[in-house]
Write a structure and sequence with these properties.
Layout (H helix, E strand, L loop, with lengths): L1 H33 L1 H15 L2 E5 L2 E4 L4 E12 L5 E13 L4 E13 H8 L16 E10 L3 E11 L2 E10 L6 E11 L2 E11 L2 E10 L3 E10 H15 L9 E15 L2 E15 L5 E13 L1 E10 L2 E10 L7 E11 L8 E4 L1 E11 L2 E10 L4 E4 L2 E2 L7 E10 L2 E13 L2 E15 L2 E11 L3 E2 L14 E9 L4 E13 L2 E10 L2 E10 L2 E10 L9 E6 L1
Parallel strand pairs: 5-6
Antiparallel strand pairs: 1-3, 2-3, 3-4, 4-5, 6-7, 7-8, 8-9, 9-10, 10-11, 11-12, 12-13, 13-14, 14-15, 15-16, 16-17, 17-18, 18-20, 19-22, 20-21, 21-24, 22-23, 24-25, 25-26, 26-27, 27-29, 28-29, 29-30, 30-31, 31-32, 32-33, 33-34
Length: 551
């Protein structure tokens, strides 16, 4: 009998507890929302915790016996403490089924969301893997949705979702694009964690891009477009690269991009496949305003690799460009590029520079981990040369090569190697070689030091500019020009050369803490000699001479 009574009391207690909880769900939320005083206290509490001042206008909440909540409000206004708009919702209503913790539907006339102001309040969201199940999406009906940021503004009109199909019209306005992007009658099928684009057409100026396939989930969709403006594509690509790394990009070495692009790509989970053909591509190099023109530039996408081979004009001269990008979409992404051209007397885009006959030029670059390695080569046949501000290279009767390699790492630009070589039976033999360093100061690259040395003795005629002042003879040396310390370090020797009425048999420079000069020879067939010791501070307006013996 006692067990029966105990069971009855337990059943009565559980029933009463259930009724109490049920009553709480049924009565308390409407009481809180529909009471002005309690609602204002709730708004104040939210403001203290989030930093947003939230105001609900005419909120109403109704609860059915089946624990289905129906809510509505004329306006939901959320601002920061400086009165900047963060969220604004006009005429919102919806239904929530508490039993399943699920939104059944959500409707609104206007929704405005400022992404920049939201991030100021709550910080940037960390990228964490999230599993989606779009079957839990409520039925949607939003007349107008606007997302605003400093980068772009997205507006969606007539957003509707019923069951498995999402439809809307859209517009994107961005200062990174020359034209607004429009989407009309966009249709997406949503099944589980997958979103399928149903031949969605995107308008970009007078051009159109079509997307179809699984854009979210296993990812297997097609992107097709014709006559897309290169200027817009360049700005979009540059913006994407800047988001990953704000440093200067290769694209910024050119301006005034023109041309059209045809795109036929398949985007899959493991990479991108297909082809992009750029037609009538033209741009202007930022340095020297040299025009670049290509009639066709194909880009072939093969999983995580892009290759391109194109011929065109560089400053009116024929140019060949090869490009390869590997490990696309990974931190190990690499760029390999090669540009080749032959400069002639018609090339007049660098002030003071003239080409005698022709010069073969080649530029090869390699980029990885934001580090840029560039190799420059100039090849001269016999009787070919460069004139720059009335100076020439010299040794015009021989085949020659000028080579220059730089490596950029952060704010430092290293001159890994430069050399001036002549062609012999066994290949090119360097006469003069060295390295150096540029560092960034006040936002500009400035030289820090240069090393220069010879491969034994080199003829004075190897440096054409010296031929204007001295004739014949040879020189050798191993010098360092320290531009930060304004010092010259190393040694230099000149022998058997002539300067006006001087015949210099030998002239030596030895630079360490001080600079010593030793010279001797003939002046008007009379012997002369010079010994000098001076301060090693060439950047000063005044140089102290400690000792001078001249006869």
């Amino acid at each position: 009998m006692k067990k029966i009574r105990l069971g009855f009391y337990l059943f009565f207690f559980l029933t009463a507890l259930f009724c109490l909880i049920y009553s709480c769900f049924l009565l308390i939320p409407p009481f809180v929302i529909n009471s002005d005083k309690i609602r204002h206290n709730l708004e104040k509490s939210i403001s203290q915790k989030t930093g947003m001042v939230i105001n609900f206008e005419n909120p109403k909440l109704q609860v059915s016996p089946g624990l289905v909540y129906k809510f509505e409000a004329d306006r939901v206004d959320a601002r920061d403490k400086k009165n900047n708009q963060v969220i604004l919702i006009e005429k919102i209503s919806g239904v929530v089924d508490i039993k399943y913790l699920k939104f059944k539907n959500l409707y609104a006339d206007e929704i405005f969301f400022d992404g920049d102001e939201f991030r100021k309040l709550f910080g940037k969201r960390k990228n964490k893997p999230v599993k989606y199940n779009f079957n839990k999406l409520p039925e949607l009906g939003i007349k107008n949705f606007v997302y605003k940021s400093d980068d772009f503004t997205l507006e969606l009109m007539d957003v509707a979702y019923q069951g498995k199909k999402l439809t809307f019209d859209g517009e994107v306005d961005s200062h990174f694009l020359n034209h607004d992007v429009f989407v009309q009658d966009a249709s997406f099928d949503i099944i589980g964690n997958k979103i399928f684009a149903d031949e969605v057409e995107i308008s970009l100026g007078k051009s159109k891009i079509e997307i179809s396939g699984d854009i979210f989930g296993e990812k297997d969709f097609f992107v097709k477009g014709f006559d897309l403006p290169v200027s817009d594509l360049e700005k979009t690509l540059l913006y994407y690269q800047k988001q990953q790394d704000p440093a200067k990009k290769f694209l910024e070495n050119f301006r005034n991009y023109q041309g059209k692009a045809d795109v036929d790509l398949r985007v899959k989970e493991d990479g991108i496949f297909g082809r992009c053909l750029v037609k009538d591509l033209s741009a202007v190099m930022v340095w020297f305003d040299i025009p670049v023109e290509f009639r066709e530039v194909p880009f072939v996408f093969d999983k995580n690799r892009i290759t391109s081979h194109a011929t065109g004009k560089l400053g009116g001269e024929p140019v060949l460009h090869d490009l390869e990008i590997v490990n696309l979409g990974t931190p190990q992404k690499e760029f390999h590029g090669d540009v080749r051209t032959t400069l002639t007397k018609n090339f007049r885009y660098i002030k003071g520079l003239r080409v005698l006959n022709n010069a073969d030029a080649r530029v090869s670059y390699f980029i990885r981990n934001k580090k840029i390695d560039v190799k420059y080569s100039l090849y001269f046949a016999e009787n070919s040369d460069l004139f720059y501000k009335n100076a020439f290279l010299g040794l015009r009767d021989k085949k020659r090569k000028f080579y220059f390699e730089t490596f950029k790492d952060g704010d430092n630009l290293f001159v890994k190697d430069y050399n001036y070589s002549i062609s012999e039976e066994n290949g090119y033999i360097p006469l003069i070689m060295g390295d150096g360093l540029f560092i960034k100061q006040d936002g500009k690259l400035k030289p820090a030091y240069f090393n220069c040395k010879t491969n034994g003795y080199a003829p004075v005629s190897a440096i054409g500019a010296l031929g204007r002042y001295i004739r014949g003879g040879a020189f050798r040396g191993n010098l360092k020009l320290d531009l930060l310390g304004d010092k010259l370090l190393g040694d230099f020797e000149l022998k058997d050369t002539r300067f006006k009425n001087f015949h210099v048999k030998s002239a030596k420079v030895i630079a360490s803490d001080r600079v010593k000069i030793l010279a001797g020879g003939l002046f008007h067939r009379q012997k002369f000699g010079c010994e000098l010791e001076a301060e090693n501070q060439f950047g000063s307006n005044t140089i102290h001479v400690y000792d001078l013996d001249l006869f």
